[in-house]
Amino acid sequence: DCQQYTNKSCEECLKNVTCLWCASSGRCVEYPVRRVLPPADLCELRSARWGVCWVNFEALIIAMSVVGGTILITLGVCCCCCCKKKSKKQVLEGPDKDDERAAREREKRRVRQEERRAEMKSRHDEIRRKYGLFKEENPYAKFEN
After folding, report:
1. Coil, strand or helix: which one is 42?
2. Which residues constitute the domain of residue 112?
């Protein structure tokens, strides 16, 4: 199907998306879909055109490599900047919010426990007084008067 456009123009050949134009030989051939790049015996990369006539495979590969590399480097730099910013923020702020919240909860529990202990002690002292079991500080205090 593509052979009929051989020795015609690149634009006519590339109207069919399955065709590859070889500028050095002026041939229009089927694109080898089993391979990503056309083999050298079919057409050199600098002469091969596919899709549009003004871009050859060699320039396309170089351009895609530069763009891909730039994107990867940009992503890497962004990740590093974000990580450093986060670690600086943690150093400046001190412990994070979860640690602060846990410390507040521990303090609340400690205060409640002390309140319960004081309440229980006062109840026990009241019961001891009621039944005369209260231990006085000075055991001889009752004999003074």
Report:
1. coil
2. 94-131
